[in-house]
Amino acid sequence: MSSGQKTMTAFITVILGLMLVILGLWSGWPLWAWPASMALLVVVALIINRTLTRESEGFPHELTLEPDAASPPVQRQEQRVTRVALPSAVADYDFSFSATVRWIPLEAGEDAALINPGGLAVDAVLRRARAVTGEQQPTRCALVQYQLDATLGTMRPDPTGRVLAMAQDVSLVLPEPDRERLTRLSDVRKDEDLWEHERNYERNKRTYLGDDVLKDTGSAVVWWLAKNDDQVEGAVDRIGLLASLSAAANNDTVAPTFQHLVGTPYNPEYDGPGYAETTDMSQPPQSSGPEFSLETLLEWIGFGPDDTDLDLFAERLAHIAGLHGKTAAAEKIRSRFDPSDPDDTTNDTWDAPMQPEEEE
């Protein structure tokens, strides 16, 4: 009996004794009734004591004397996986994954099949890792490793629900040859982007010059004035040049309004070097008379009346005319430049065929 049971028994006994004394005094019991009430009080105390003792013995006696048994320790197991290829967002560029996989077996029914918990745990971890790496670029290897540390750092059940798995000491690398290839590809893409921007800039500039600035001579002059608003006289001096540029940009000829500003007009009395530069030699001059004269031809070629080579050129011109059967024209040329003996052609060298010079 514990001390608490003894105290409760004594407390109840005292209360009942007091009640019997009060009842006896109030009723005026005879003398023999007092010993009988005391005996009854003792019997009641014994019954109360027995009742309290039975209620305290609800647990087996042997269990109340020994401490609770400790729970069995949780068995955690682990396995190291190394150099497992995991896909990235770019085909043929795989990450190399390494980690320590840890797992805890879960409770299963009596009729459950036997399992390989390590294999289930490794497969679950690789599935979770593949879901992360498959959406990342291979050039972001360090960033993906930190994401895997967070994703795989929590115990989660595998798809079969038989084990809890996680991973630690995660390592994720990209093979060095793939890293070099990606670096070269990145450099090429950057160069292509730069070249594309430069080409677009050049294309826009050509469009601006061709369709706006050099659309016509007036637009070219206004553009030059906008660039040099304090040089009005310089703009006037460059109208001919700007007209030529505008015509060339549009594959056209200079407008008649600006032709007199483009080059020096033809002057028959001037046979200097500037004449050859400003005269179009591809088109023969148009004579104002009914026919084309020899003097006009010579002037078009560039010979003046006092040119020292004029007689030699006339001799050769007559010789060429005779070779082609144009004897009348040859005689006219000879009579024009050698009137002293126009009929003597026997000793002339004009009718003799020109012999090519022998090569040394």
How would you sum up this structure, described in words?
The chain is an alpha+beta fold. Among the domains are: 3-59, no CATH class; 77-106 and 115-180, Tetrahydropterin Synthase, Chain A, CATH 3.30.479; 308-360, no CATH class. The chain has helices at residues 3-27, 33-56, 61-64, 117-133, 141-151, 176-213, 217-227, 232-237, 239-249, 273-278, 294-301, 310-323, 327-337, and strands at 77-86, 95-105, 156-157, 163-173. The protein has a four-stranded antiparallel β-sheet. Strand 1 (77-86) and strand 2 form a beta hairpin. Helix 4 crosses helix 5 (141-151), helix 7 crosses helix 9 (239-249) and helix 12 (310-323) runs antiparallel to helix 13. The longest helix is centred in the middle third of the chain and has 38 residues, at 176-213. It is rod-shaped and about 200 Å long. The N and C termini lie far apart (152 Å).
String of helices and strands? HHHEEHHEEHHHHHHHH
Strand order of the main beta sheet, please?
Answer: 1-2-4-3
Q: What is the number of helical segments per DSSP (H or I, 4+ residues)?
A: 13
Number of strands: 4
Report the top-level CATH class of the domain at 77-106 and 115-180.
Alpha Beta
Instruction: Sketch the major β-sheet.
Output: 4 strands, antiparallel
Average residue pLDDT? 78
Q: Report helical residue fraction.
A: 40-55%
Q: What fold name stands as the CATH topology of the domain at 77-106 and 115-180?
A: Tetrahydropterin Synthase, Chain A
Ranges where pLDDT stays below 50 over 5 or more residues in a row are 264-290, 341-360
User: What is the strand content?
Assistant: 5-15%
